[in-house]
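Supplementary Methods S3. Input chains for the assembly prediction are listed below.
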Amino acid sequence: MAAFSSSHPLGRTGGVTAGGRRYMNPYLAGFGLGLILLASFLIMGRGLGATAASGSVTAWAVGLVAPDWVATNPGLKGYYAEPPWINWTFYLIVGAFFGALVSATLARRVSLRVERGPHLGVPARLLLAFGGGTIAALGAKLAKGCTSGQALTGGSQLNAGSWIFMLAVFAGAYALAYFLRRQWR
Amino acid sequence: MNLPLYAYDLITDSQGLVIALGLGFGFGWFLERAGFGSARRLTAQFYLYDMAVLKVMFTAIVTSAVGLWLAATAGWLDLSMVYLTPTSIGAQLFGGLLLGAGFIIGGFCPGTSVTAAATGSGDGVAFLGGFVAGLLLYAVAFSGLEVWANAASVGPLTLPEVFGLAYGGVVLALVVMAALMFAGAEWAERRFSFMRPGGR
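Predicted structure tokens for the full assembly:
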């Protein structure tokens, strides 16, 4: 099935997706991302983030069945004050979804796929992705932010906690990389 | 100039939501342009043959940090009105380790999983599903950690305050550090090019 083949988006020369156009120069993409982040600070007085939008949707959905529990739960009550349709971070992520979709469409990179190495099946890859997402959520909740809200946003504000977080993210990923190499090779 | 505009009531809440859509569009656009809709491209950072994650992240951090410093020094931006996430050392250390583990296991971080899902990645959708499950698991089983993290918080804290250095000096050190890291990244990509899988 072509749509779920174990395609390798990076060719031997790098930077080229299977069938799609070349990726942008990383320094140029970083500069663009930095300008968006700076604009967010200057206009709104806050940076970018990806965790809070999921939190807002989750708290709202759970609130439909157990409003009292959500309103008092330490992990969710902070997201419950505003439903997603008036929540700033939700609009940010909806925008990000469409920005990525338009970019990938223009670069012919939209395809139904489960990316993985030749020795890993689709169910195993999906399970690892799901489990990784679960662990990442525990980390993002505990640290009050993720790679966007802490590393990028706080990093550029010279936030002490964000730099501790960022170093820990790299340390955690490098420490486990060897054991997970079979996902891709 | 009165920046941030929102803090000076020059922008309404509903205008802010429209601006969020626009900023988000640019956010997703540049993540996808960088190739961050691909878990293989993202995790390559940790196998050293493609350091795009480090290059994109630190170029963005330096760009924004220099811009913030210039705007504040020129008197256009009141930095005290820009939200700064409080520092809680143990929580951010442990949370960072967990997020790094989730990143290398799952292949994404929260923002890039949205980028991937938008472009048709089934593994991106699975990561997002796992992320929501993790938020629920945290709410059900680990709410005590939230109480601990808040109690251990030392409040908003910046590196210039920690080191007792001038704001501009730390920004300059950041620029120099990033330049050295970029040179190291270029070297690593050549040195570890054999780690690139297959090439098929």
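Chain A touches chain B through 131 residues (CB under 8 Å). The CA atoms of residues 50 and 93 of chain A lie 7 Å apart.
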